[in-house]
Amino acid sequence: KPAMRKCQESWFLELSAALEPGTKPKCDKTALLTDAIWVVNMLHEETSRLKEQNVKWKEKINELKSEKNELRAEKQRLKADKEDIEKRIKALGAHQPSFQYHSTAMPASYAIPYQRIGTELVPFMNNPHVYMWQFVPQTVVDTSEDHVLHPPVA
């Protein structure tokens, strides 16, 4: 029995050192046990709180993963839509003439006949009175800013 008692005393000294490191060990066994129970309860509460927080974080991670997958799917869909639109634009561009003439600049009697070469319509120019300025975009022909852009030379 005395060996057992010594062993218990050393356990209480170790418990006191663990509860309050750096201070003189307590000899009051009830105070030591009360402090130990209080620390164990605090650790148990903190463990419960951390477990709840861990569950919340896992739920948030799953939500973010599903959102990421949705965004990836939307990105793929948008990429496919973009490619489809680009194909349509290329298809439209291949069948239209590469220029447009101003309808007011050319009367119907002098309209340009088109000649089909392959898949494109090419103008067949046979009238010498049709000038090329009608095929130039209107912004290039505009002379309203000439006095600013090109001042007169003396």
Automatic annotation (TrEMBL):
Keyword Coiled coil: yes
Ranges in a coiled coil: 47-95
TM spans (from-to): none
Molecular function per GO: DNA-binding transcription factor activity; protein dimerization activity
One BP annotation, GO: intracellular iron ion homeostasis
UniProt entry keywords in alphabetical sequence: Coiled coil
Gene3D superfamilies: 1.20.5.340
Keyword Coiled coil: yes
Protein name: BHLH domain-containing protein
Organism: Opuntia streptacantha
